[in-house]
Structures are given as C-alpha cells and as structure tokens.
Amino acid sequence: MGKTGDVNSTAGMTKEMAVYHQLREAILRNEYEPGTVLVERQLSETYNVSRSPVRYALRQLVREELLTEEPGKGIVVPVYTLEDILGVYDLLEVLQVYALQVSLKNYDAVSDRTLTQIMEETEKESQVGDLIERMEWDVKFHSFIIHSVHNRWLDKMFELLLNQKRRFDVTSFEDLEHGKETTKQHHKIYEAILARDLDGAIAAEREHSQYIKKYYISKLVTGRYNIWQ
C-alpha cells in the first residue's frame, strides 16, 4: 500500500481534495503496484477519513486515467502495455512539435533565460545523480515549451499525458546513464531554440521522443519495467 497520511492536517484543502492529492501522488510515485485493486475501506483507514472523500478521489483519478475501473474487480492501478507507451509518447511528440511550430517565433530574451535556468538545473542534478530532482526539471523543460503557446486546451491535453509520463519516469530513477542521455538530448533541443532554428528544434525533439519510446519498450519487453522485481 502507499504511504499513510492524516488528511485532516492538510491545510487549506477539503478532505476530498486532500485524499485526492495524496493518493494521486502515491500513484504517480508507483507506491501502488500495477494491478493493485484499491478498496475504499482500506483507503479510508489509510487516510483516516470516511469513505466519501475516498470515493471522490477514486472517481477523479479514474477520469484522469491514472486508475481504471474493471468489471468484477473494481478500481485498479493500471498495468502498462505497449499501446500505453506508444500512445502517450506519440501524442507528446505531436504536442511538442506543434508547440514549437506555433510559439518559437515569439520566444524572447526572457524565454531564453528561463530555459537556460531549467537546463542548468537539469544538468546539475544529472551530474550529482539526483534523478528524482532531475526528472522534475525534465518536466519543467517540456512544460515550458507547451505553455509558451498560451492555449488552455493544449495545456489540458498535455497535463493528461504528463500524468502517464510521470508513472513511466519513476521506473527509470535508478538509471543514471538514461538520465545523462536525456539531459544531453534536451540540450540539443535547447540549443536549437536559442538559435531560433525551428527545423533543428523539431528534429531534436523527434529524436528525443524516439529514444524515450524505445527505452521504455525495451524495459517492458525485458521485464525491467516492473520496478518491484
């Protein structure tokens, strides 16, 4: 089971939102093994609340596709499939390329400074081997590109895919070489952006997406995707 927590002590949140945020974080951190059936009674004991806030949290997480509802089982933590990996990363690639095509021409000195800071922090965490923190800067890098379009519908689609990306990412936290390689690929995208080289940025983004897909497919095929093995 995931980490316990007393949601009554979560400042500024209703019990429903507190349970939702704590359970969501536990799922994104893979604290619940894929295939685990989440039971309202057990979760209400874990979070020290009645079943109503737990039911709200579960329904919300099903809508976000971080959980699935399976006939005869109930609400389950999804098991990864090849279709999941391809679907998520194919769409992330499409959204990133679209974002570059739409907004790169509008980047300015402020954009450059922000991206530079993101890259510096990413490279620093990669060098010291803090892959969890490095991954947070990885997310900020991709999020910056998406949010530069200033399109709330694009933001919503990206956030939905980002939920799934985080669940994949947590399985690679022990892989230092993978962290270094993805940082190197981000740097190629970053350099092309600074040069306002749209074709180069798109090519680097596509190369990065292909690498990520192959990496997680390899983990799935070889059985290294299950972090509990």
What this model shows, in words?
- With 229 residues, the protein is mainly α.
- The chain is 68% helix and 3% strand.
- The chain is built from 9 helices and 3 strands, in the order H-E-H-H-E-E-H-H-H-H-H-H.
- Strands 1-3-2 form a 3-stranded antiparallel sheet.
- The mean pLDDT is 90.
**H/I helix tally:** 9
**Helix and strand succession?**
HEHHEEHHHHHH
The percent range for helix content is 55-70%
Could you give a short account of the major beta sheet? Answer: 3 strands, antiparallel
How many E-type strands? 3
**What's the N-to-C terminus distance?**
16 Å
- Let me know the average pLDDT: 90
> Which class do the helix and strand fractions yield?
mainly alpha
Radius of gyration: 19 Å
Task: Tell me the strand percentage band.
Answer: under 5%
- The low-confidence parts are none
Widest sheet: strand ordering: 1-3-2
Rough outline: globular
Keyword list:
9 helices, 229 residues, mainly alpha
Outline of the structure:
With 229 residues, this protein is mainly α. The chain is built from 9 helices and 3 strands. The protein has helices spanning 15-28, 40-46, 51-63, 82-103, 109-128, 131-147, 152-169, 176-194, 198-222; strands at 37-38, 68-70, 74-76.
Sequence-ordered SSE layout with sheet pairings:
Blueprint: H1 15-28, E1 37-38, H2 40-46, H3 51-63, E2 68-70, E3 74-76, H4 82-103, H5 109-128, H6 131-147, H7 152-169, H8 176-194, H9 198-222
Antiparallel strand pairs: 1-3, 2-3
